[in-house]
Design goal:
The chain contains nine helices and 14 strands. By secondary structure, it is α/β, with parallel strands linked by helices. It starts with 7 loop residues before the first strand and ends in a 6-residue tail after the last strand. Bound molecules: Isopentenyl phosphate (IP8). The site of Isopentenyl phosphate has 18 residues, from helix 3, helix 4, strand 7 and helix 6.
Length: about 270
């Protein structure tokens, strides 16, 4: 591994670390603390990215931020959403700090610019410098400035996949409130956990709305995670989707041991 390389990029889903349907921003502190302990106990270099859950999505939805600027009334929403994400980030960062991990929070709106919602440019030097120093950068889905739209919401999923590719990670691990990818909405009868997917199956599934719940995320929920995984898998990165409910499951996924969830092995060929 060269010194800008990390072993894993770990995306902590907003639904896993917050009560997503709560009326007010509500963290799942016990889950956050356990995940901090699980990630730090691997002893492997990682980058952490977390989602918005009940902190980021309600204000982003209220002010229609994902579609970009259309009214000055949205400025309040831009500020509120960013502030709320900083609040969640402080809770997550504190948990990792308490787990004796040298985490270093990095604010995505200060280093990512998008164009029509896709990363257009990223200033990665602080992230790489933190890694070289032996720190673990910790980022989050954020409201960011967009060349065409003025601003938009950049999901933690897109950031995680982008960083995994740029930093040459071996694994991209999505820690989620459900156990992995299912054949259909897991709340429906007959839904089956898919343990392994090929790149071809991933591409097919990412375009199939029925197979996955869309969820209430402004950034597209489960389907978006699949979509964001495709370029990472094509670069040879192993992408794992695992549930947080079983203690130790995410630690196992990061280490490449057996875990409950869905595996997509990196495939450089296609
Ligand atoms: O939960 C979106 O990030 P995600 C964050 O990873 C905001 O999609 C600000 C809604």
């Amino acid at each position: 591994m060269n010194d800008r390389q990390v072993h894993a990029v770990v995306k902590l889903g907003g639904g896993a670390i917050t009560e997503k349907d709560a009326k007010r921003p509500t963290p799942k502190r016990d889950v956050i603390e356990r995940l901090a302990e699980e990630v730090s106990s691997t002893g492997l270099s990682s980058v952490i990215v977390h989602g918005g859950g009940s902190y980021g999505h309600p204000p982003a939805e209220k002010y229609h931020l994902i579609d970009g600027f259309h009214s000055t009334n949205q400025v309040q929403g831009v500020v509120e959403t960013h502030r709320s994400m900083m609040e969640l980030n402080a809770i997550v960062t504190d948990a990792f700090f308490d787990a004796k991990f040298h985490v270093f929070p990095i604010t995505p709106s200060s280093c990512f610019i998008t164009d029509n919602g896709r990363v257009n440019s990223a200033f990665l030097e602080p992230i790489i410098s933190a890694i070289k120093l032996g720190c673990t950068p910790i980022l989050f889905g954020d409201v960011v400035f967009d060349r065409t739209l003025g601003f938009t919401i950049l999901s933690g999923d897109q950031i995680a996949s982008y960083l995994a590719q740029e930093l040459g990670a071996r694994r991209l691990v999505f820690a989620m409130d459900r156990d992995g990818i299912y054949t259909k909405d897991p709340r429906k009868e007959g839904a089956r956990l898919i343990e392994k997917l090929s790149l071809r199956q991933l591409v097919r599934l990412a375009g199939k709305v029925e197979a996955v719940t869309k969820g209430s995320d402004v950034t597209g929920g489960m389907q978006k995670k699949l979509y964001e995984s495709i370029p990472a898998v094509k670069k040879g990165i192993n992408v794992y989707f695992g549930g947080v409910s079983r203690a130790g499951n995410i630690r196992s996924a990061i280490k490449g041991n057996a875990f409950r969830g869905t595996r997509i092995e990196g495939s450089r060929k296609s």
